[in-house]
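User: I'm curious whether this sequence folds into something compact or stays loose and floppy. Could you predict its structure so I can see for myself?
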Amino acid sequence: MANKRLRAIYHRLPLRWRPPRGARKYRALNEESQWWPVERIQEHQLARLRGILTHARENVPYYTGLIRQAGIDPEGLKSLEDLRSLPILEKQVVRDKTRALTADDWKRWKPVTHVTGGSTGQRLAVLMGRAGYYAHLADQMRHYDWAGYHFGDRLAMFTPHLQDFDRQEQLFDFHRPRNTLFVNGRLFSQETLAAMTEALARFRPEAIIASPSHLHLLCQYLAEKGMGAIRPRALMTTSEMLYDFQREEIGRFFGTRVYDFYGMSEHAAGGAECEAGRYHMSLEYTVTEVLRPDGTPAQPGEMGEIIGTNLVNYAMPLIRYRTGDLGVPAEGPCPCGRTLPALERVSGRSQDLIVTPRGVTVFSSVRFSFHDIRTVKEVQIVQEDVSRFRIRAAVADGYRPEHGQKMAQALARGLGYEATVTVEPVSHLARTEQGKLRLVECRVPLNTASRSA
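Assistant: Here's the prediction. I'll summarize afterward.
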C-alpha cells in the first residue's frame, strides 16, 4: 500500500524532478563530475577504459586478437595515451564486421539498435546497451540544463524518425507525458511551413530542438510573415554543423542565444556548448581524441579529426572510432568554471572538405555569406572540379539572376583562388534520409590535390 501511494505521489511530480530510473545514477554523477579536477576526470575515464577493454578482449571477437597483438594489458593500463596502441576503427569496418564487433554476451546488456543515416546517407547499425543509453540520456539532460530547458517544459522537437508518427504524412505528434510536440523533420519544407508554424504558435514552446537548417528556415519564414507568437526561452541545435550565419540570424530573430549540441547516434563522442560558447566533451562515458593527419594529438587552437571511444556500451564496443568530424581543442580553463575538457569549436565534418590547388582544406562558411540575399533560403555548394563550383540555391519569389551573380562573386572571393562559380536555382534542396542538409558536396577525389600541386 505504501509503495502504491509513493508511486502516485511520484507520478504527480514535475518531469524535471523524476528522470528515468536508469539515468538517475548517471545524472547524479554528471552534475558532480563537471566540476571535478581534470586529474580526477582522467582517473574516472581510465577505470572505465580498463573495464571496457577487458570485456572487449574476453567477449568481442574483433578485439580479442587485436588487443593482444597491440600488447595492451587492460587491467594494467597506466594512461589514456596507451589507447593509441590500437588502430582506428573505420565506419566501413563496422558495416562489414558487425557480428565480430558484437559481444558474445550481448543479450546481457539489453541493447537496442541505433541506425544512423549520417551526412553521407549511408546507414550504419550499432547495438547500444541499456547502460549506454541511460548514460547518454543523463548527458543530454545536463546539456538541456545548460541551455535553459528542463524536462516538463513545453518542448518542440524536430525529428526525422518516422516511428514517432502513426503515418508517414503526419506532420505532428504530441507526447503528453513529456509535454513535447514532435514535428516531422522529413516533411519540413516551404509547403508545410504554414501548418507547422500555426501548430507551434498554438503550442507556444518554451524550448525548441532542431537541426540548424530547419531552425534557420523557420526563423526566416516567421520574419517574412511578421509572426512573433513563437518566442522560446531555449534554442538548441543538433544533427548538423551550425554555421556562423545561421547562429547569428536565429539568435537575432528569437532574441536568445543558440546552444549547439555535438553528438552522433553511435555515441562514440559527444559534447555541448556551455554559456561561454565552448563544447565541453562528455568524458564521463567517452574518451575523445583530436588527432592531426599523422595521428598525433592536435594542440589547442589546431584543427584535428575527432576519434571517439564509448566507455559504457558493452553490447558493441566502439573503440577509437573515426567519427568523420573535425574539431579544435580549446586552450586553458573555460570561463564557465567547468573542468570538463572542451573544444573551442566543432569545425564541420570531413565531408565539408574541398580540394584547392594548395591541397585539401575544410570549407569555411565564414568567408561565404548569402544571408543578406532575402530571395535565397538555403544553399548547397557542389565542387565539380578543383576550379569549378556550382551553387544549388533554394530560391523564393522575387529571385533574379543578379542575386545569383552576387552569391557567385562572394564564393569566388572566399575561395581565395581563381575558380568558376555557377548558380543553379531550385525550388528546394534534397536532404539525407535522416533529414540532414549537407552544405558542401565535393565530387573531386581528395588525392587530386597531390597530382595538381
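Summary: Confidence is low (pLDDT under 50) at residues 449-453. The longest strand covers residues 376-385.
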